[in-house]
Design goal:
By secondary structure, the chain is of the alpha/beta class. The protein has 2 domains: 3-34; 88-343, Alpha-Beta Complex (Spore Coat Polysaccharide Biosynthesis Protein SpsA, Chain A). The protein contains 8 helices and 10 strands. The protein has helices spanning 12-34, 40-50, 96-102, 122-132, 173-195, 266-285, 293-304, 340-344; strands at 88-89, 107-114, 138-145, 160-166, 198-202, 206-208, 220-224, 257-265, 309-311, 333-335. The strands form 2 sheets. Strands 1-9-7-8-5-2-3-4 form an 8-stranded mixed sheet. Strands 6-10 form a two-stranded antiparallel sheet. Helix 5 (173-195) packs antiparallel against helix 6 (266-285) and helix 6 crosses helix 7. It is globular. The protein starts with 11 loop residues before the first helix and ends with a helix. The structure holds 2-acetamido-2-deoxy-beta-D-glucopyranose (2 copies). One 2-acetamido-2-deoxy-beta-D-glucopyranose binds next to helix 2. One 2-acetamido-2-deoxy-beta-D-glucopyranose (NAG) binds at residues 179, 182-183, 186. It is found in: Membrane.
């Protein structure tokens, strides 16, 4: 090879020509950005990605909102930050106007499983989601069901759609619950990666009672289980048999997360659901089933992949299980009373 390499004499005219060409391209693309309309496509595409990339910051327009005060914390009665600096989302700590601007043009996929008799919950779930879930944003409801003909037609606002995904059922409700991880994992690879920015995975036997918006979105989020928010880690109902892939020793654990509400970017949800599914396959081969099924595996995953946001029990409540404590200013997503034996058979 010529020791002068690329910078050698023979390369110079080519190089000068190329640099001039590149400079012109750069100049014109900047000029286009100054002409209204011309640069918009470029700009919006980079904006579109920035909320998904923790190293990028989305641009927001001029907005008028009350100023926060450093010595006047928005909530003094509850923990609002984990020790790994993930926000814990409570009423009073966020401003939806700012967040809506940061997450504009985001598409959110909501997965929900309506297998066997659980289809009866879909109507109320979808109706209340239209009132409270990600209002003003693009939403695709992915309804997994073995009874596509029974999916109700609920009127949807613009930019929102229901996609029915026909899947098989399983004999035991525990199996139905556990196979959700596998199905979300499979469909994430096949289509969710190409169709939405975030995935929100929720239980169907629930209704929305108040705002659930983009404040929940983050690369990986989990929701505190209403039965254990005040409990010590020793009392969490983690899987305690060391033979199980979901095993968590008594001296470990941050929170007890609910199986009925988690999510994140599609890539992170794909990782989570694939890992949980694989762990369940290993357990099954060893003749084991974790004490709380997919929820046990979710808790194991979130112990070693710390969520980047944690949703307070406002985001998952059961009025039959617990009386509402005073620090819960809102109940956003609550259990619909049901006859377990009747629905699960
Ligand atoms: C919004 O996102 C879509 C892709 O989902 C993109 O094609 C479009 O240019 C974006 N629009 C704006 C205004 O950012
Ligand atoms: C998920 O995908 C794998 C690999 O393609 C397949 O073997 C499996 O049956 C699928 N699972 C479900 C529940 O569809």
């Amino acid at each position: 090879m010529d020791p002068r390499g690329f910078w050698g004499k023979s390369a110079s005219p080519w190089l000068c020509g190329f640099l001039l060409f590149a400079a012109c391209l750069g100049f014109y693309s900047n000029i286009f950005n100054l002409i209204p309309g011309w640069g918009q496509r470029r700009e919006s595409e980079s904006d579109r990605d920035s909320h998904l990339d923790p190293c990028r910051v989305p641009k927001v327009p001029r907005m008028l909102y009350p100023n926060v005060q450093l010595l006047n914390p928005m909530r003094a009665d509850v923990l609002v930050l984990t020790p790994w600096f993930a926000p814990i989302v409570w009423e009073g700590v966020f401003d939806s106007a700012i967040l809506d601007a940061q997450f504009r043009n985001t598409t959110i996929g909501l997965t929900v499983f309506a297998i066997k008799k659980y289809v009866v919950f879909l109507e109320l779930f979808l109706q209340t989601a239209e009132k409270h879930f990600m209002v003003g944003h693009r939403v695709i409801y992915y309804v997994f069901t073995d009874r596509p003909a029974d999916v109700p037609r609920v009127p949807l606002a613009e930019g929102r759609q229901v996609v029915v995904l026909e899947v098989r059922n399983y004999a035991r409700w525990q199996e139905v619950s556990m196979h959700r991880m596998e199905m979300i994992s499979n469909f994430s690879q096949q289509r969710f990666l190409h169709e939405v920015d975030y995935l929100v995975c929720m239980d169907v036997d629930m209704k929305f009672c108040d705002h659930v918006g983009v404040e929940i979105l983050s690369p990986l989020f989990g929701t505190l289980h209403p039965g254990f928010y005040g409990a010590a880690r020793e009392a969490f109902t983690y899987e305690r048999r060391p033979q199980s892939q979901a095993y968590i020793p008594r001296d470990e654990g941050d929170f007890y997360y609910a199986g009925g509400f988690f999510g994140g970017s599609v890539v992170e949800v794909l990782q989570l659901t694939t890992a949980c599914h694989q762990a369940m396959v290993v357990d099954q081969a060893n003749g084991l089933e974790a004490v709380w099924h997919d929820e046990s595996h979710l808790n194991k995953y979130l112990l070693y992949h710390k969520p980047t946001k944690v949703l307070s029990p406002e985001y998952l409540w059961d009025e039959q299980m617990q009386q509402r404590p005073p620090f819960l200013r809102k109940l956003r997503y609550v259990a619909v009373p049901k006859n377990h034996a009747e629905i699960r058979q």
